[in-house]
Amino acid sequence: MTTVTTSAVATSLRRLYFARFALALVWAGLLAATASSLGPVSIALLVLYPLFDGVAAVIDARSSKDKGPAPSLYANIAISWLTAAGLAVAASSGIPAVLRVWGAWAVVSGVTQLVVGVIRRHLDGHWPMILSGGISTVAGTSFILQAGQDGASLLNLAGYATLGGLFFLASALRLGRATRGR
Known about the structure:
Blueprint: H1 3-34, H2 40-64, H3 70-90, H4 95-119, H5 127-147, H6 155-179
Helix pairs in contact: 1-2, 1-6, 2-3, 3-4, 4-5, 5-6
């Protein structure tokens, strides 16, 4: 990959990661405000997050074209959009069902993010993505386990999104080095 190509991909990813950071914080705040129950707003937020994740993967795949992890990104698109549909259905069964679907998605998308990060490790900003992918798999497992406990809550999902947003911010800031041509 040439320096110009690497810089162009890094610039595109940097913008995308800043947008993902902002959305994660806004989303987390809105979910935290509505997390006490499954109502129309919290359900819409739950479905929106993986939909946006899929859209972000589309943008990512287009920006990097055939220069990297396209198969992993395409898998993430499918997984995220299927998860959005699964969350819409799970919401009718209650918070534990939502946590199970969300947890499964966090595990699978975390592994995908880990793979994408490893493929892109030559770009300065992807070590936070590798860490985030690993943490996502652990968090997903905890959501699934939490679903089986009394008093299961959506509030931890807001924390998950906030932490993920901070990892996107760290990646965006680190990618700044790549956009300056090192």
